[in-house]
């Protein structure tokens, strides 16, 4: 799973600010500028000037934002449509399944919490992650309409579902309900 970090870099202007700003026929939307950082692989950032700042000289943008993906490690096993029955439904004891997708911001927010809980409950609860883009049939069986969704199964039966990015305490209390 990738995490994103953003850093400031000087942008490269894509349009001539002076030509656009000095044109009497240029509309407000034409006076908006775009900037791209050389090492951002084409990430465009729209920079808008407020109407009070639009004069014959438009200030040059000073900074851009570059986001870079970084790999994060996780000890949580992956489950998919083909391994669902053997790993989740036929498991003894509680199983927590995190339904997620790589493009989902809230999924990335709760990923560290789920990883912490997996370490804390080692030997008591089995943790799995299911990528809803790669395995769409299992989420549709369980009516997963939004992600992140965390479901808890006990002896193959769905017992609880937590939808959205919730605090660690909410996840922990949901897990604790099903521990004997």
Give a description of the structure.
The protein has helices spanning 17-22, 84-89, 105-120, 137-141, 168-176, and strands at residues 2-9, 12-13, 33-36, 44-47, 64-71, 77-78, 94-100, 126-131, 149-154, 157-163. The chain is α+β, with helices and mostly antiparallel strands and 180 residues long. The strands form three sheets. A five-stranded mixed beta sheet has the order 6-8-7-9-10, with helices on one face. A three-stranded antiparallel beta sheet has the order 2-3-4, with no helix packed on it. Strands 1-5 form a two-stranded antiparallel ribbon. It starts with a strand and ends with a helix.
Given helix and strand content, the structural type is alpha+beta
Rounded mean pLDDT score: 74
Oligomer: single chain
Shape designation? globular
Low-confidence stretches: 1-23, 25-56, 64-72
Major sheet characteristics: 5 strands, mixed
Amount of beta strand = 25-35%
Cα radius of gyration in angstroms: 24 Å
Order of strands in the sheet with most strands: 6-8-7-9-10
Distance N to C terminus:
32 Å
Counting DSSP H or I runs of 4 or more residues, the number of helices is 5
Helix content: 10-25%
Count the E strands: 10
Domain Thioredoxin: 67-180
GO molecular function: enzyme activator activity; protein-disulfide reductase activity
InterPro entries: Thioredoxin, Thioredoxin-like_sf, Thioredoxin_CS, Thioredoxin_domain
Main location: plastid
